[in-house]
Design brief:
The complex is a heterotrimer of chains A (666), B (312) and C (221). Helix content of chain A is 69%, strand content 4%. Chain A has 24 helices and five strands. Chain A has a two-stranded antiparallel sheet. A two-stranded antiparallel sheet of chain A has the order 4-5. In chain A, strand 1 and strand 2 (69-73) form a beta hairpin. The longest helix of chain A has 36 residues, at 324-359. The model of chain A has no long low-confidence stretch (mean pLDDT 88). Chain B has 312 residues and is mainly alpha-helical. Chain B contains eleven helices and one strand; from the N terminus they run H-H-E-H-H-H-H-H-H-H-H-H. Chain B has helices spanning 2-35, 45-54, 66-84, 101-121, 125-156, 161-170, 177-193, 212-215, 221-246, 255-279, 288-308, and one strand spanning 58-61. Chain B starts with a helix and ends with a helix. The mean pLDDT of chain B is 88. Chain C is mainly α and 221 residues long. Chain C contains eight helices and no strands. The radius of gyration of chain C is 18 Å and the shape is globular. The N and C termini of chain C lie far apart (62 Å). The chains are: A mainly alpha (666), B mainly alpha (312), C mainly alpha (221). Chains in contact: A-B, A-C, B-C. The interface between A and B is large, with 87 and 85 residues. Strand 3 (553-556) of chain A pairs parallel with strand 1 (58-61) of chain B.
Chain lengths: 666, 312, 221
């Protein structure tokens, strides 16, 4: 099995090299994206088959001469390989149509398959060297893709921040693996599992893993690169970065925290819970303040990563207290959300890409009325918005429901940190879900509904059939996962079995296809029945209305309380829609304030309202660090201009100090 | 046979909530009118209003899309399904296990999502004002509701309404602080979600005071009839949930007694709501977040008290 | 854990006192604050009377009557007259927004639970929870004093703090009547002195806003 996956990866690397040569050709796009689609489909099938099987390993004599390269395909890897395969297949299909509009294909086509190869390789790596090599490959390939439109304003800065944060995450993971390697110094994961580090070392390793993997996933406060880099890349790459790469980062964290570290501790659960809750709420609040469609979606990814980390924190907390069934439920909820998010976030980015190609605009305040011009894209985007707002009977609701059920499970946990963190996280989760719905009413309403605000919005054209197929495929997957959640839960069972020791009760035998997370007397949810109910009620209503109500309908200008305004500028903009929420939360979270500049009477200058938002995370963490590094580099810069005598003096001083240290150590 | 009987009872429940909803709205209006020393419209006036609206022509804005026309059906169907999942005169109905309290809250959230999108469809500033205020109120009311669900579920050991009702009716729950906090918070959330004074005025015509009315401003004819009926159903749903959790008498004494007691509970709730609406003024829009924030804090306090100490 | 309904009512009244403390945090008008302060005292009186009933300690009835009479009727009436005669601006200015203040209140309840419940682990279960809730009332009263600018609302915070101390003392089943009467008298004297000072300050500076009064402190250079 694993040999087939490795073969797929080699093929992808070959495709990357080929892409460098055929990029300028007309069929280059078809070769690269079509090839990626085929390989991703094969990889997806392999992963699905291996999900229920036994782990398979292989060791190749490449890489470090005394270690070689180890690869392993166990249930956890198989699940994430499924997510990667699904996401990359969809993105490749989308790219077949979207790539037509790429002006510089030679900057995108060679790096795209390399990126896919890196994603797949991280998930099956079984030693630290291979993992980090694949991690860096993933980062570099995506950096090249982010910089593919480097002449557009802001993209160069985004690439710069991205490469710094990616290197930082690689460094943190390197240190973490170094700590985990223990006294034997062996880099293979099998050896790391056998080493039982002391609690202090384990704590440090977990924090480093959280920093390293978390910064790639986008947890607050390490998220700042995400909303800069994800929108800068081409749309199908944005979908891959938000939908798949962040999940691969989550895989890294799960592999270290649940597999390599051994038994979890309660305070690690508290830490992950706290970070997850804060990330969720801050992510969605930032998203609400945005008017750039792709940046809004990128900030929203931060929120969903927060929700995933809340589930992981619950699993750690319950695992530390010897409650494996509860830990299995928490882990299942987190992994279900991993799957859900990769599906609907990719769908939403595809829609944003379609809007970008059709109008050339990413700014919501220049769009509007697209539901009339791009009806199919609008419908698929609507399904994505409903799924991400956790509305039944779609899939977003199921993972959120499972997380709430996990929160409810054991109020008698002995540790105070958990007693306070779990209800607080429940409140934060509920708050983020409600704000997410608000965010997507804004995104969909301003972009697709209403009247077109500019010429380009009024002249938009529907997306091509490849993009539409990808979007509708993912939309159908959202509905299927929401209506048949038991299938997904049973597919996840081997993963939780391997990581926590138990699994959730088998779902496929439950009557009427409900899901029963603990026992049926306690709680159950039936997505299929809810869907059938809603359809039946709606049909009954339609029948009744047809039978008993008048059929007359007349089109007329909008009522608007008798004062209709023909100009579309009087519609709500994104900022006006978010104003009530900004006023409620913004003063605390963003230190936002509005200034109204009112010209004196008689002047013809327009009145302006300016809103000022400052990002507290940037001001507290990044700006001081950047300033300190700059200052340090300025001080050290003096070392560039010394005389030869000074340089010799440095060498002499270093030699003397080392000899002194040697003498004292003896 | 048991399945057929179960289906029949479930069907009766669904028809019942549909028929009783306008009656509750009419009762509240009558009580408010009487307190203002007016005669007021008859209690069955909402039925007449619905009939009249169904027979009228729909006037649709020129740039309304398919979403605007489909939304009333979606809102009504989803609210009806949510109302059908709440035990009114008996627990243990055939499909009550397909959705628990969290699912009911989320279903109402779907209805609100559809309503807000339909409001933005025409592209007038009224739709924008209604939708943006509605999502602001929902961003606080829904977490408060979920926290209340959490505290009730921690006490009763389940999120299924039937199980909760049975637990509250039969186990010696006693008076618990968390339940009292939950009840106060629930009443605040119910007032906010049903667009009642002090959060919103259901009878207003001034745009500065509108939230729900602004969202349905462009609707007419049969579409408006469905939305009005959905709003009445939502009120009935909230009253039923309060009755089911906090006053669960009569839910296990057979259908006839259960139904009679249910009617009594509805009447009491209608009178109390009317009296409350008459005795308090509507708040400014930006005091509503303080009001709902207080409900969220109270419900969070209720959950916290359950988590940190046993027996509270 | 189930106790009898006697303990349930005691819990309900203690929890009600915490609820009314939160309501006091929420108020932003002076007359409403004074009404809620009276309600606070009524609930305290009911709680103490109930403790008198289940502990069979008749001297606690006198405490309840003092709470009802002084803190429930006399003091709120006096405060209302003071506000009227001083012509104090009838809205309360807060240092931080009401939402944040209530969030801090929740954190204080959590803190008092964290401190009190492990410490009293071997005590009577009724007294345990009552003491933890009483500490919450005390801390919320202090929070009110810290986050309000108006002198009258600070007095309200102080009185609610004293109510919390009373609740703790009666819950602990051992407060003799003599202590209660002396404490009540000292509160009364303190109240009269504060009232006299407020009038004097008002005559001198035309305001009782603490921020404005800050200008008149002696140490400014």
């Amino acid at each position: 099995m694993i040999a087939l996956t490795l073969a797929c990866i080699v093929l992808l690397l070959g495709l990357a090299v080929a892409g460098a040569f055929v990029a300028s050709a007309a069929s280059g796009r078809t070769i690269v994206y079509g090839g990626s689609l085929g390989i991703s489909a094969v990889s997806l099938l392999i992963a699905l088959v291996s999900l229920a099987g036994t782990p398979s390993t292989v060791t190749l004599p490449i890489g470090l001469p005394w270690t070689g390269a180890h690869f392993r395909l166990d249930p956890l890897s198989a699940f994430f390989l499924t997510v990667v395969g699904l996401g990359s297949g969809g993105a490749s299909l989308y790219g077949l149509g979207y790539g037509r509009h790429e002006h510089e294909p030679q900057r995108v086509l060679p790096f795209y398959p390399a990126f896919l190869a890196g994603l797949n390789l991280v998930v099956i790596a079984d030693d630290a060297f291979g993992f980090l090599f694949a991690w860096e490959l993933m980062s570099l390939a995506s950096w090249a893709l982010v910089m593919s439109h480097h002449r557009e304003p802001g993209n160069a800065n985004a690439g710069y921040v991205y490469i710094i944060m990616a290197s930082f995450s690689g460094l943190a993971l390197l240190l973490c693996f170094g700590l985990l390697a223990g006294p034997t110094g062996s880099y293979t994961f099998t050896a790391m599992r056998a080493v039982h580090p002391s609690p202090g070392i384990a704590a440090l390793a977990l924090v480093l893993a959280l920093i390293g993997a978390g910064s790639k996933a986008g947890v607050v406060p390490l998220h700042a690169w995400l909303p800069l880099a994800h929108p800068a890349a081409p749309s199908h790459v944005s979908a891959l970065m938000s939908g798949v790469m962040t999940k691969v980062a989550v895989y890294g964290f799960i592999r270290i925290a649940f597999d390599l570290l051994g038994a979890p501790t309660w305070w690690s659960g508290t830490l992950v819970l706290a970070i997850g809750g804060i990330t969720a709420v801050l992510g969605v609040l930032y998203a609400l303040m945005e008017h750039d469609l792709k940046r809004l979606l990128a900030y929203h990814t931060v929120e969903n990563i927060g929700i995933i980390f809340i589930g992981l924190g619950l699993a750690l907390a319950f695992g530390a207290n010897q409650l494996p069934a509860a830990a299995a439920l928490g882990l299942t909820a987190a992994l279900f959300h991993v799957f859900n998010h990769s599906v609907f976030k990719s769908l939403l980015f595809f829609g944003a890409g379609a809007v970008l190609t059709a109008t050339g605009e990413r700014d919501m305040d220049h769009l509007g009325g697209l539901i009339h011009r791009m009806p199919k894209t609008a419908f698929a985007f609507l399904v994505g918005c409903m799924a991400i707002s956790a509305l039944p009977p779609l899939n977003g609701f199921v993972s959120e429901w499972l997380t709430f059920q996990a929160i409810l499970l054991h109020p008698d946990l002995p540790q105070w940190g958990l007693k306070l963190a779990i209800p607080a996280d429940g409140a934060l989760l509920a708050l983020s879900a409600a704000l997410a719905a608000a965010c997507f009413v804004k995104a969909y309403g301003i972009t697709f509904l209403g009247r077109p605000r500019t010429r380009v919005a009024a002249d938009a054209r529907e997306a091509d059939r490849f993009s539409l197929t990808a979007m509708f495929g993912f939309a159908a997957l959202c509905l299927l996962a929401g209506v048949f959640p038991g299938v997904v839960i049973d597919l996840l069972a081997p993963v939780t079995q391997a990581l926590t020791g138990t699994r959730m009760p088998t779902q496929l035998g439950v009557e009427w296809l409900s899901i029963v997370p603990i026992e049926s007397a306690r709680s159950s949810y039936n997505g299929l029945l809810v869907f059938v109910f809603i359809t039946v009620s709606a049909s009954l209503t339609v029948l009744a209305i047809h039978r008993f109500a008048s059929h007359a309908l007349r089109r007329a200008p909008a009522w608007d309380c008798g004062f209709p305004d023909p100009r579309p500028e009087t519609q709500y903009t994104g900022a006006s829609f978010a104003q009530p929420i900004r006023r409620v939360y913004g003063a605390v979270v963003f230190r936002s304030h509005e200034t109204v500049i009112m010209p004196p009477p008689g002047s013809t200058a327009p009145a302006r309202i300016e809103k000022h938002i400052s990002d507290p995370v940037w001001d507290t963490f990044y700006a001081p660090v950047a300033a300190a590094v700059w200052h340090l580099s300025l001080v050290l810069n003096a070392m560039q201009f010394l005389t030869i005598r000074r340089y010799l003096g440095f060498v002499f001083a270093a030699l003397v100090i080392l000899l002194l240290a040697l003498a004292l150590w003896q | 046979m048991a399945v057929i009987q179960g289906l029949l009872v479930q069907g009766v429940q669904m028809t019942l909530v549909l028929l009783l909803a306008p009656l509750l709205t009419g009762l509240v209006r009558k009580v408010k009118a009487r307190l203002q020393r007016r005669q007021g419209p008859s209690v069955i006036q909402p039925y007449r209003d619905l009939k009249r609206l169904l027979g009228k022509e729909v006037v649709l804005a020129e740039n309304a899309s398919w979403l605007f026309r489909v939304a009333p059906y979606v809102i009504f169907a989803v609210t009806w399904v949510a109302a059908a999942l709440v035990p009114t005169f008996a627990t243990g109905l055939l499909f009550s296990w397909s959705g628990d309290l969290i699912a009911i809250t989320a279903l109402l959230g779907s209805a609100r999502f559809a309503q807000a999108l339909a409001a933005m469809d025409i592209g007038t500033s009224f739709g924008g004002i209604g939708a943006s205020r509605e999502v602001m109120i929902a961003s606080l009311a829904e977490p408060a509701m979920l926290m209340i669900v959490l505290s009730v579920a921690l006490i009763a050991g389940s999120t299924q309404l039937s199980t909760i009702a049975d637990y509250m009716a039969f186990s010696a729950v006693g008076l618990r602080v968390s339940l009292a906090l939950g009840l106060v918070a629930f009443i605040v959330v119910a007032l906010a979600e049903n667009a009642r004074i002090p959060v919103d005025n259901p009878a207003t015509h001034l745009e500065l005071t509108m939230v729900h009315e602004a969202m349905v401003l462009e609707y007419s004819g049969r579409h408006l009839a469905m939305i009005e009926l959905a709003a009445s159903l939502k009120l009935l749903l909230y009253v039923s949930v309060i009755a089911c959790i906090f006053v669960p008498v009569g839910l296990a004494q057979g259908y006839a007694a259960g139904f009679a007691l249910y009617l009594v509970k509805l009447a009491v709730a209608g009178v109390l709501l009317g009296v409350f609406e008459m005795s308090i003024a509507k708040m400014r829009v930006f005091r509503v977040p303080n009001f709902l924030g207080a409900a969220l804090m109270l419900s969070l306090l209720g959950v916290l008290l359950l988590f940190v100490s046993e027996g509270m | 854990m189930q106790h009898g309904y006697a303990f349930d009512i005691a819990h309900m009244l203690a929890g009600g006192l915490v609820l009314v403390s939160f309501t006091m945090l929420y108020q932003d008008r002076l007359y409403a604050l004074i009404n809620v302060l009276a309600l606070h005292a009524f609930i305290l009186a009911a709680s103490v009377a109930w403790q008198a009933h289940i502990q069979h300690a008749p001297h606690l009835y006198i405490t309840a009557a003092i709470a009802l009479g002084f803190k429930g009727i006399v003091i709120p009436m006096a405060l209302r007259r003071m506000v009227f005669r001083l012509g104090i601006h009838r809205e309360i200015e807060t240092v931080v927004s009401i939402g944040l203040t209530m969030l801090a209140g929740i954190a204080l309840v959590a803190l008092s639970m964290m401190v009190m419940l492990p410490v009293t682990a071997h005590a009577d279960p009724v007294a345990r929870e009552d003491i933890a809730l009483a500490l919450s009332v005390v801390l919320i009263g202090l929070l009110m004093m810290v986050t309000r600018r108006n002198a009258v609302s600070q007095v309200a915070g102080f009185l609610s703090l004293e109510n919390g101390v009373n609740l703790a003392a009666t819950g602990a089943q051992g407060m003799p009547l003599v202590v209660e009467i002396s404490v009540a008298f000292s509160i009364l004297i303190a109240f009269i002195v504060i009232g006299i000072f407020l009038f004097r300050i008002r005559e001198r500076f035309d305001t009782v806003d603490l921020q404005a009064l800050d200008q008149a402190r002696g140490e400014r250079q």
